C-alpha cells in the first residue's frame, strides 16, 4: 500500500482518541441514566457508569487501531479493491474484540461495586447484536481518516507547488542579477581594467557564497550580509567613493533567519534608480532591527523616487512574491517614495519588510 509514514504515533492522537471515547461514553451514560430516571428506575447510576465508561478505557486503542488500518489501507478510488478485504476482516475482529472486552470488563467490575454477577446473555447473539453498532462506529472512523488524508494530501500539494514557485523565483533572480553584473563589468572593462578585474573577483566570491545556499530558502541574516558585502564591493569598484552604502544592523537581529538573496536585489534596485546612477554620487541605507516578534528590514536610497507602480521591476516583484509564499499574511512588504513609506526620512525610494523573527540559534 502506501509507504508514507503514519501520523498516528504521536501522543496527541492517543489523548484525542481517549477524549473522544470519553465523550461518547459520557453522552451514552447521560442518555441511559436519564432514561432510567424518567422511567422510574432507581439506583442505576453505578451500573450505567460501568457499562459506558469502561468503553473509554479499551476504546482508545481500538480507535487508534482503526485509524492505523484506514491510513495504511485507504478506501480511495485507487486502493479500495485491495483494501476492502482487509477492512472486512478488521471490522469482524474489531467487533468481536469490542464485545468480548465489554463482557470481560463488566464481569470483573460488577461484583467489585456490589452489583452482583454480570449477565451478558447469550454470547453468540450478543456478538450479532453489537455488530451493527460496531459497523457504524468503524465507518465513522474511516471517514475521519479519509478526511485527514485528503486534507494532508492537499496541504502537501500546495506546499510542493509553493516550493517549486520559490525555486523558480530564485532562479529568475539569479540570472537577472548575473546579467546586470556582467553588463556592468563589460561597461567598465575598457575604461578601467583594474576596476573591472576587482569586480570580476567580487562577482566570483558572490557566486561562491550564493552556491552555498542554492537549496536553502532561509539563511541567517549575517550570511545574507556577507553576500551583500561582495555585491557592494563590486559596485564600489565601479563607482568608487561616489557610492556610499551604510549597513546598520541591530546585533539582536544578526542570527535572524531571512530569505536567501533578499538584500542584493533591493540594493541593486537602489543602485540602478538612485542618485549614484543618475547623478554619479549617492547613498544607500540598509537597516535591520528586531521589534518584538518581528524582524524589520529597510533599504532606502537618496534618489528622486519613482512614479511607476510598486514592485514594477523583476527584483522587487520577485522579492514580494517570495515573501508572500514564505510567510503569507505574517509579513509586510512596501515599496515606494520615502515620503509615503514607513522608512520615512525625506526623498528617495524606500523598501520596508517585516517578517516573523526566528533565530537560527533556537
- Give me the Rg, rounded: 33 Å
- Order of strands across the biggest sheet? 2-4-5-7-6
What is the count of helical runs?
9
In whole angstroms, how far apart are the ends?
A: 38 Å
Helix coverage percent: 55-70%
**Mean pLDDT figure:** 81
* Poorly predicted regions: none
Coarse structural class:
alpha+beta
Order of helices and strands: HHHHHEHEEHHEEHEE
Strand content: 5-15%
What is the count of β-strands? Answer: 7
Q: How would the global form be characterised?
A: elongated
Q: Sheet bearing the most strands, described?
A: 5 strands, mixed
Describe the model:
There is one protein chain. This protein has 362 residues and is α+β, with helices and mostly antiparallel strands. The protein contains nine helices and seven strands, in the order H-H-H-H-H-E-H-E-E-H-H-E-E-H-E-E. The longest helix has 67 residues, at 123-189. The chain is elongated and about 105 Å long. The chain starts with 10 loop residues before the first helix and ends in a 6-residue tail after the last strand.
Amino acid at each position: 500500500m502506501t509507504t508514507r509514514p503514519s501520523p498516528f504515533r504521536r501522543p496527541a492522537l492517543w489523548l484525542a482518541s481517549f477524549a473522544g471515547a470519553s465523550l461518547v461514553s459520557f453522552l451514552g451514560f447521560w442518555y441511559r441514566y436519564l432514561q432510567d430516571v424518567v422511567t422510574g428506575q432507581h439506583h442505576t447510576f453505578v451500573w450505567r457508569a460501568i457499562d459506558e465508561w469502561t468503553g473509554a478505557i479499551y476504546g482508545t486503542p481500538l480507535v487508534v487501531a482503526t485509524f492505523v488500518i484506514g491510513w495504511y489501507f485507504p478506501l480511495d478510488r485507487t486502493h479500495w479493491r485491495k483494501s476492502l478485504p482487509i477492512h472486512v476482516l478488521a471490522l469482524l475482529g474489531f467487533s468481536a474484540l469490542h464485545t468480548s472486552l465489554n463482557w470481560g470488563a463488566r464481569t470483573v467490575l460488577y461484583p467489585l461495586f456490589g452489583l452482583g454477577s454480570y449477565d451478558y446473555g447469550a454470547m453468540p447473539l450478543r456478538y450479532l447484536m453489537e455488530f451493527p453498532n460496531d459497523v457504524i462506529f468503524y465507518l465513522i472512523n474511516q471517514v475521519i481518516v479519509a478526511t485527514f488524508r485528503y486534507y494532508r494530501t492537499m496541504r502537501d500539494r500546495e506546499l510542493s507547488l509553493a516550493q517549486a514557485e520559490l525555486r523558480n523565483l530564485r532562479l529568475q533572480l539569479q540570472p537577472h542579477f548575473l546579467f546586470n553584473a556582467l553588463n556592468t563589468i563589460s561597461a567598465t572593462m575598457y575604461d578601467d581594467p583594474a576596476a573591472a578585474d576587482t569586480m570580476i573577483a567580487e562577482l566570483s566570491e558572490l557566486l561562491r557564497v550564493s552556491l552555498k545556499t542554492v537549496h536553502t530558502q532561509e539563511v541567517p541574516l549575517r550570511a545574507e550580509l556577507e553576500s551583500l558585502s561582495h555585491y557592494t564591493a563590486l559596485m564600489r569598484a565601479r563607482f568608487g567613493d561616489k557610492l556610499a552604502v551604510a549597513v546598520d544592523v541591530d546585533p539582536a537581529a544578526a542570527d535572524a533567519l531571512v530569505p536567501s538573496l533578499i538584500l542584493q536585489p533591493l540594493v541593486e534596485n537602489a543602485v540602478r534608480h538612485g542618485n549614484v546612477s543618475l547623478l554619479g554620487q549617492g547613498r544607500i541605507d540598509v537597516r535591520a532591527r528586531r521589534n518584538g516578534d518581528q524582524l524589520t528590514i529597510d533599504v532606502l536610497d537618496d534618489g528622486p523616487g519613482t512614479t511607476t507602480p510598486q514592485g514594477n521591476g523583476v527584483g522587487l516583484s520577485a522579492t514580494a512574491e517570495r515573501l508572500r509564499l514564505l510567510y503569507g499574511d505574517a509579513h509586510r512588504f512596501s515599496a515606494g517614495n520615502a515620503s509615503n513609506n514607513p522608512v520615512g526620512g525625506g526623498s528617495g525610494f524606500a523598501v520596508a519588510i517585516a517578517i516573523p523573527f526566528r533565530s537560527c540559534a533556537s
